[in-house]
């Protein structure tokens, strides 16, 4: 008999979860159930073949129509562009499917081309024809493509031609006499806007006349200005100059008055005043004008003329010429006269006493200041009046601006209407043109059904149905399908695969296969498991064996593994730590008052207490510590420090320590024990355990920090069969005190008497 085992299983296998893990697992399921998928594909293929052979052949014909717009929106030339006609293509497409076009086309069809209307009420012929038509237009083009299907290829082509002819007649009737209507509309609009424009321009001219608007400039960008505004600007400039002159006259007057009153030098003010009022006027005011101003001016003019003549003579004659010398002497005499006169005037001013010059100079400065102030006041009054009048005109100017803008806008619209009227005159009845660019043709190849499309559809349908059926079957049968699937989902190596074991027929240790029939093929599975554990990385001296649910065979697996270790000359200790349902104790018939619970409750030294509660079954290198009396608090006992001390003592005595623990999902005891040992081995029955439960158990074990060495697949059937037979096992959380072992004396029950073999405890030095 062949043995299914994996002696070289790796110590660590990557754990895959999430979407990728589910996908890989599902692909494995598909591989296992590939014949289901093949059957669905065959059925779908057969259905597709039947459909293709029996389906009615449908033929198609098409035509293309070009739509051109030579005009546009009658009120906006910008609408007559290619973009406009492209925007209107959906409208033209809808018109081709309109009832009026289709009804006219149906009326033109002869009886032999009405085969598609057989069995259809006449009132629904239009709807039936529309359902067999399709109208489309390529993006950024003015071409409409019309397609129609029929049971007969000649009928398809004839119907397309009839629809196109009906559409052309409809468009021609719609556009007939459109130019006359357009021209009439434009004429009414032109007259309306002409009247409005005349009214606005008359109002504008009237308002300009009333407000006194003047135009300056000669080109088309004339600048408008108002009389009052111009006058206010000029008065403002004059007022500014007058204010400055008044300030200067006042400052001069105050300076002269201060000099006169303080007895200062007033000669400097004489020349300043001469620059303002004139030298002769000043001398006359001071009583020094003894020479005739006319004579003085004439002498100065003669001096200038003589100087000019001298320059001319020097250009012709030498400097020693008598005429040149004579003219130079005359010029020098004239200059001396003028210079002496200035000196004489200055001397005359100096000879005036302070009492005479000061009052005269102060009077002249006062008169100058008074004249400047009077002129400033007069200009200020004129400016204020002009400014007030200009402000009052602001509302009129705003109204003028509004009217001008409105007149400009209406005139532009009026000019646009005139241009449109010219276009209508030159291109009457040509605003829209529709032409056939591709005639309908008779195509003898059907468009439905297509062999390629039918085949692809059958393939897709068969694949979808097959995968869906596999998914449903997999959801119903939630068990592991292969060791690879188990390793992939759990992330654990498969340490060994154990076939279904036949009963040995003995009692106690005789029920253990590796002891009763050590040379059998089934016993080799447990030696394979022993080797796999030995080759695992890290320490494996202290191991706990558990399962997902009760009945998975963990106790049987543990007992056979212990015998296999003992046969390998390893001193082995078996501990039944399942204090609730001690399967190992029942298997080996060791029920009694002594055992693990007794050791954990005693206060005696751990070595003495352990030796009192360990039994030897007659197998070399193998000792057993049963569970002992049933305690009321198994979790508290297993999590105590004394249990840890027990393991430490056993580690110093034995080469291998194997602990039987309750199922992982039933109670917390396996997690408590798992944290105290080197590793854990999980026994799984694929024919019984559900995937979700096993995954949950392994995850729960990992989350508590327990090192899981791997899994043992137990209870395999015949070679080549899939795992499982469709039955399950519900356990819930009812795993508890369901055995009939001896009752703990401390709980008030009886001790249960002697064990079956009356075995004596092992007594050896610690």
From TrEMBL:
Sequence ranges assigned to domain Polysaccharide chain length determinant N-terminal in this UniProt record: 23-109
Record's subcellular location: Cell inner membrane
An example molecular function term from Gene Ontology annotations: non-membrane spanning protein tyrosine kinase activity
Entry's EC annotation: 2.7.10.2
Basic and acidic residues bias (residue ranges): 754-766
A matching Pfam family: AAA_31
GO CC annotation terms, alphabetical: plasma membrane
Keyword NADP found: no
Coiled-coil portions: 362-420
Keywords on record: ATP-binding, Cell inner membrane, Cell membrane, Coiled coil, Kinase, Membrane, Nucleotide-binding, Transferase, Transmembrane, Transmembrane helix, Tyrosine-protein kinase
Catalysed transformations (reactions): L-tyrosyl-[protein] + ATP = O-phospho-L-tyrosyl-[protein] + ADP + H(+)
Annotated segments matching region Disordered: 742-766
Membrane topology label: Multi-pass membrane protein
Membrane-traversing stretches: 35-53, 455-473
InterPro entries recorded: AAA_dom, Bact_polysacc_biosynth/exp, LPS_length_determ_N, P-loop_NTPase, Wzc-like_C
Keyword Cell inner membrane recorded: yes
Domain AAA, first and last residues per copy: 545-669
SUPFAM superfamilies with a match to the protein in the record: P-loop containing nucleoside triphosphate hydrolases (SSF52540)
Domain of life of the native organism: Bacteria
Protein family: Belongs to the etk/wzc family. Belongs to the CpsD/CapB family.
Protein name stated in the entry: non-specific protein-tyrosine kinase
Organism from which the protein derives: Schlesneria paludicola
């Amino acid at each position: 008999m062949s043995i299914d085992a994996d002696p070289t299983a790796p110590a660590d296998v990557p754990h895959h979860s999430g979407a990728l893990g589910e996908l890989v697992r599902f692909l494995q399921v598909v591989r296992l159930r590939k014949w289901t998928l093949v059957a669905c594909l065959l059925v779908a293929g057969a259905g597709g073949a039947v459909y293709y052979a029996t389906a009615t052949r449908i033929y198609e014909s098409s035509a293309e129509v070009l739509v051109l717009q030579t005009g546009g929106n009658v009120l906006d030339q910008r609408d007559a562009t290619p973009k406009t006609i492209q925007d209107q293509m959906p409208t033209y497409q809808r018109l081709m499917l309109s009832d009026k076009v289709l009804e006219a086309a149906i009326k033109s069809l002869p009886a032999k081309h009405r085969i598609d209307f057989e069995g259809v009420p006449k009132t629904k012929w239009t709807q039936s024809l529309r359902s067999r038509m399709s109208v489309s237009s390529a993006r950024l083009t003015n071409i409409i493509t019309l397609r129609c299907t029929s049971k007969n290829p000649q009928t398809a082509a004839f119907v397309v031609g009839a629809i196109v002819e009906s559409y052309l007649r409809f468009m021609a009737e719609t556009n007939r006499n459109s130019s006359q209507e357009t021209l009439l509309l434009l004429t009414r609009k032109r007259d309306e806007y002409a009247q409005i424009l005349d009214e606005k321009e008359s109002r504008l001219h009237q308002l300009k006349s009333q407000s006194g608007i003047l135009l300056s400039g000669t080109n088309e960008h004339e600048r408008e200005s108002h009389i009052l505004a111009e006058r206010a600007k000029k008065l403002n400039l004059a007022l500014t100059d007058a204010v400055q002159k008044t300030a200067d006259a006042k400052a001069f007057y105050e300076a002269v008055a201060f000099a006169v009153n303080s007895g200062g030098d007033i000669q400097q003010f004489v020349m300043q005043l001469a620059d303002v009022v004139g030298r002769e006027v000043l001398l006359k005011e001071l009583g020094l004008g003894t020479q005739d101003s006319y004579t003085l001016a004439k002498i100065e003019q003669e001096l200038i003329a003589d100087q000019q003549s001298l320059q001319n003579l020097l250009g012709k004659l030498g400097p020693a010429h008598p005429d040149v010398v004579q003219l130079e002497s005359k010029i020098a005499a004239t200059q001396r006269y003028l210079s002496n006169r200035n000196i004489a005037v200055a001397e005359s001013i100096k000879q005036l006493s302070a009492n005479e010059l000061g009052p005269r100079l102060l009077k002249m400065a006062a008169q100058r200041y008074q004249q400047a102030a009077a002129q400033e006041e007069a200009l200020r009054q004129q400016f204020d009046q002009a400014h007030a009048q200009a402000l009052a005109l602001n509302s009129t100017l705003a109204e003028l601006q509004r009217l001008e803008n409105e007149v400009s806008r209406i005139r532009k619209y009026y000019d646009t209407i005139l241009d449109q009227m010219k276009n209508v005159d030159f291109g009457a009845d040509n605003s829209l043109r529709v032409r056939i660019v591709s005639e309908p043709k008779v195509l003898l190849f059907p468009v439905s059904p297509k062999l390629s499309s039918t085949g692809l559809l059958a393939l897709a349908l068969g694949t979808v149905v097959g995968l869906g059926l596999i998914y449903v079957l997999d959801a119903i049968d939630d068990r592991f399908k292969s060791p690879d699937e188990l390793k992939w989902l759990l992330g654990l190596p498969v340490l060994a695969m154990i076939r279904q074991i036949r009963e040995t027929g003995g009692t106690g240790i005789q029920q253990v296969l590796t002891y009763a029939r050590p040379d059998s093929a089934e016993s080799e599975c447990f030696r394979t498991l022993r080797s796999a554990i030995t080759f695992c990385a890290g320490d494996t001296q202290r191991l706990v064996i558990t399962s997902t649910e009760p009945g998975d065979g963990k106790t049987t697996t543990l007992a056979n593994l212990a015998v296999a270790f003992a046969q390998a000359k390893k001193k082995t200790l078996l501990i039944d730590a399942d204090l609730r349902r001690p399967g190992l104790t029942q298997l080996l018939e060791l029920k009694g008052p002594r055992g693990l619970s007794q050791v954990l409750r005693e206060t005696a030294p751990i070595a003495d207490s352990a030796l009192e509660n360990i039994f030897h079954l007659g197998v070399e290198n193998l000792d057993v510590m049963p569970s002992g009396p049933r305690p009321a608090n198994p979790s508290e006992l297993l999590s105590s420090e004394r249990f840890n001390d027990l393991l430490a003592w056993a580690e110093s005595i034995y080469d291998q320590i194997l602990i039987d623990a309750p199922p992982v999902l039933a109670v917390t005891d396996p997690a408590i024990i798992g944290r105290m040992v080197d590793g854990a081995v999980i026994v799984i029955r694929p024919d019984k355990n559900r995937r979700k439960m096993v995954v949950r158990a392994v995850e729960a074990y990992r989350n508590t920090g327990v090192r899981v060495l791997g899994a043992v697949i137990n209870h395999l059937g015949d070679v080549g069969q899939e795992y499982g037979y469709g039955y399950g096992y519900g356990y819930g959380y009812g795993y508890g005190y369901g055995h009939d072992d001896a009752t703990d004396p401390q709980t008030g029950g009886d001790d249960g008497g002697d064990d079956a073999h009356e075995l004596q405890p092992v007594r050896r030095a610690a």
